[in-house]
Amino acid sequence: MEDINPNVQNYIDILEKTNQQLSLWYNPYGVMVAILGVFFTILAIAAAFIIYRQSRDYKDKVEADREFYRKKMQEFLEVQTKIIEGKSRTAKELSEKTDHILREYKKKLEKSSKSQKEEIQKAIDKLELEKLTIKNDIGPITVTPNFDNPLSTVSLFDKKLHKCSHCGFNFYIDTNPIYSGVVLSTRSTVTCPKCNNIDSTY
Q1: Considering the entire predicted model, what is its pTM?
Q2: Which has the higher per-residue pLDDT, 141 or 57?
Q3: Do 202 and 183 contact (CB within 8 A), yes or no?
Q4: Which keywords appear in this protein's UniProt record, sorted alphabetically (predicted)?
Q5: Residue 137's pLDDT band (boundaries 50, 70, 90)?
Q6: Among candidates 92, 93, 118, 117, which has minimal Cα distance to 107?
Q7: Is the pLDDT of residue 12 over 50?
């Protein structure tokens, strides 16, 4: 066999090693594993970014909604406060005028004849009723029932509408929720603020 030149042999060895390295690099399994590794890395980064954005957007949305409803509630309360204040001023003015007229009528009542007194008394009663109605328009008159037992059963609601059996005047009965469902006594009474008639509330 013919001897190979040492330089040529070295060149052949280098080519063989290069071919071996290239064959390992282009191994389909190795390439697949490398691609999958890169792919999952990209997916992980993308998922983390999406979660971060969604979390941030959600927090911003919740904060924006909270601020929106807070402003709406504040506006509603301001409007209602103005309405109540306006009604209260009007009621106070009407009540003062009514009181002034009542005082004048009562002065006339002392100096009037019997027939005139009857007419004046009717006018006074009418004005007294109108005065109660004015207060009732702003905030319905509320009275507290008189319980035979302080733990009597009362309505679950804070207030209950009642109509006087004598004069027909409507007013609210104040109730205390802490007594709800306690059946130690079912008897209670309430006094009409107009005619002082006493009614049973059960």
Answers
A1: 0.34
A2: 57
A3: no
A4: Coiled coil, Membrane, Transmembrane, Transmembrane helix
A5: low
A6: 117
A7: yes
Q: Is the model's pLDDT at 178 over the cut of 50?
A: no
Residues with Cβ within 8 Å of 194's Cβ and at least 6 positions away in sequence, in order, are 128, 129, 132, 164, 167, 169, 171
For residue 156, the model assigns a pLDDT of: 38
**Where residue 21 falls among pLDDT bands split at 50, 70, 90?**
low
Question: Per the structure block, which two tokens stand in for 10?
Answer: 């070295």
In whole angstroms, what is the distance from residue 92 CA to residue 99 CA?
10
Tell me how crowded residue 109 is: count the other CB atoms within 10 A of its CB. Answer: 15
Residue 66: φ, ψ to 5°: -60, -45
Q: Helix/strand/coil (H, E, C) string of 12-24? A: HHHHHHHHHHHHH
Contact at 8 Å (CB) between 149 and 123? no
- Rounded Cα–Cα distance for residues 169 and 163 (Å): 6
How many other C-beta atoms lie within 10 A of the C-beta of residue 185?
A: 14
Residue corresponding to tokens 């209260």: 88
Q: Average pLDDT of 78-92?
A: 77
What is the C-alpha separation between 138 and 84, in angstroms, rounded?
A: 8
Whether residue 145 contacts residue 154, with contact meaning beta carbons closer than 8 Å, is answered with yes
Find all residues with CB under 8 Å of 106, minimum gap 6, and list them: 124
Give the number of other Cβ atoms within 10 Å of residue 147's Cβ: 19
Q: How far apart are CA 140 and CA 198, in angstroms?
A: 19
Asked if the model's pLDDT at residue 189 lies above 70, the reply is: yes
